[in-house]
Amino acid sequence: MFKRTLALLATGLAMSAAAPALSQVKEIPWGTSAVGSAGHKALVILAEVLNREMPKYRITVQPTPGAVVTVKGYATGQFEGHYGSDIAFYEMANDIKRFKGFKAGMTRIIKSIRQGMFTRPRGGVYYSCIGRGASLFGPDSEEF
Prior knowledge:
Layout: H1 2-18, E1 26-32, H2 38-53, E2 57-63, H3 67-75, E3 81-82, H4 86-93, H5 107-114, H6 134-137
């Protein structure tokens, strides 16, 4: 797997150096959970479709140790898109557990709020985690 990833990276670098037209492509680094996880697999497929259908954009899948890292990476400007989890958003909104004291570093989100958030979202992807349950979402384990 490492050799395959390294080969893809080397191919991408070679292509970007050889083709000036690629410099006009808007890169969108998208943070996701670890390689092999459901979130990573879903984003790889989504990125393939979007890259094929939107030639002026290049979505690159950036695996991280988990959803908390991607949420923090998006909030601080490391990623243009991210995979997140309900529990990560809950912890961030309530400034608890893995997000305790993190709000001060949320430069991107704070900047968006200060600008009035007058731009519309470009899109979003939501899929439910089948591994959750009453321990995370209460006795009914409801989506919304």
